[in-house]
């Protein structure tokens, strides 16, 4: 079974995110999500976290945040502009999720 193979890597020394939390990656993560954290008009971080947590489902994220779906979609579009990436792209979403996790924002 594929999940059983994880035990073979017990010598890595702990959870993967702990292993990735090097000073260089912490600086990268801080710079990567700074446009969200610095945006003064509204706090976009919770919206992006919820959207990514819901695997890109705008409907589910809007319900979870008690927002109209158009409001949520506007915020996602604004965040995509600020981050200069397409949050509907799985690779971009994974990168932003990792940066948010390394910064302790999720």
Protein architecture, described:
The longest helix has 16 residues. This protein is 62% helix and 0% strand. The protein has six helices and no strands. It starts with 15 loop residues before the first helix and ends with a helix. The mean pLDDT is 87. The chain is globular.
Number of strands: 0
Overall mean pLDDT stands at: 87
**What share of the residues lie within helices?**
55-70%
- Main sheet overview: none
Separation of termini?
Answer: 30 Å
SS field, number of helical segments: 6
SSE sequence, one letter per element: HHHHHH
Poorly predicted runs of 5 or more residues? none
Structural class: mainly alpha
The 3D shape can be described as globular
Radius of gyration: 16 Å
Percentage of residues in DSSP E strands: under 5%
Give the SSE map.
Blueprint: H1 16-20, H2 23-38, H3 44-53, H4 58-64, H5 69-83, H6 90-102
Q: Could you name the key traits of this structure?
A:
single chain, globular, 106 residues, mainly alpha
Question: Can you describe this structure in just a few lines?
Answer:
The chain is globular and about 45 Å long. The protein is 62% helix and 0% strand. The chain has helices at 16-20, 23-38, 44-53, 58-64, 69-83, 90-102.
């Amino acid at each position: 079974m594929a999940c059983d193979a994880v035990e073979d890597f017990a010598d890595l020394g702990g959870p993967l995110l702990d292993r990735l939390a090097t000073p260089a990656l912490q600086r990268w993560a801080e710079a990567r999500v700074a446009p969200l954290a610095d945006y003064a008009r509204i706090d976009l971080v919770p919206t992006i976290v919820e959207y990514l947590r819901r695997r890109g489902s705008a409907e589910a994220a809007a319900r979870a945040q008690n927002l109209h779906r158009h409001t949520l979609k506007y915020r996602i579009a604004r965040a995509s502009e600020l981050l200069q990436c397409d949050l509907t792209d799985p690779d971009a979403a994974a990168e932003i999720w990792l940066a948010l996790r390394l910064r302790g924002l999720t």
